[in-house]
Design goal:
The protein has six helices and 14 strands. The protein has 215 residues and is of the alpha/beta class. The relative contact order is 0.17.
């Protein structure tokens, strides 16, 4: 299985490539629209600001090839900023449009917890995953190898708010609030945390993504 990892200048790509290699996948790191159009499966990593990420994709002519390939059925995994760019829009530094695969908006994590106490933003720590969207477990999803309560590594200042509850696969808790940790819509899935930095739990998620790609 070959996974095409999209390079648009805002990614820690080595750790992503190494994680997929550990799971037995070949990776192609590319900024070439032609590679995206022919990809078996796509991975959109990313760190940094939403507007910069979208600007990087647009500058390289990657937005429409990504949309085209996903429309043709290719699986797409977004990681961290890459997950946020799967949504309709973000409020980070203004209002900016995203790729529009998952209905919803990206918003700032509140500076106060539910009790009104100051909380640290960005959210940086290991936190557990819990079933969301009316689910009681992770069966039949890319999280099928994860036991509810197992932890992954988060680092982000903005959070995705899916418009449809069914698109929330997993939440975590921060400041007493539910935060979307994994969202999915059709053949597109996004992880707010970094699976490539989340040890065996993260690797199990990447392995299951590969299994989905091969079906």
């Amino acid at each position: 299985m070959k996974v095409t990892v999209i390079d648009y200048g805002l990614s820690n790509l080595r750790s992503v490539q190494n994680a997929f290699a550990h799971c037995g996948a070949e990776t192609l790191l590319t900024s070439d629209p032609a590679d995206v159009r022919s990809a078996e499966a796509l991975v959109l990593p990313g760190v940094g600001a939403f507007r910069d990420g979208m600007a990087g994709l647009e500058k390289l002519g990657l937005v429409e090839p990504i949309r085209q390939r996903v429309a043709e059925g290719a699986p797409l995994l977004g990681i961290c900023l890459g997950m946020q760019m799967l949504f309709d829009e973000s409020e980070e530094f203004g209002l900016y449009p995203g790729l529009g695969f998952i209905p919803g908006r990206v918003v700032k994590i509140p500076a106060q917890d539910v009790q009104g106490n100051p909380q640290r933003v960005p959210h940086i720590r290991w936190d557990p995953l819990y079933p969301a969207g009316g689910r009681t477990d992770f069966a039949g999803t890319v999280l099928s190898g994860v036991t509810p309560g197992q932890e992954c590594y988060f680092i982000h200042s903005y959070e995705a708010k899916p418009a449809e509850e069914a698109d929330r696969l997993a939440d975590t808790r921060y400041g007493g609030r539910d935060v979307c940790a994994v969202a999915a819509h059709g053949n597109v899935v996004g992880c707010q945390f970094h699976p490539e930095k989340s040890g065996p739990v993260g690797l199990s998620i990447l392995s299951q993504f590969l299994n989905v790609c091969q079906k």
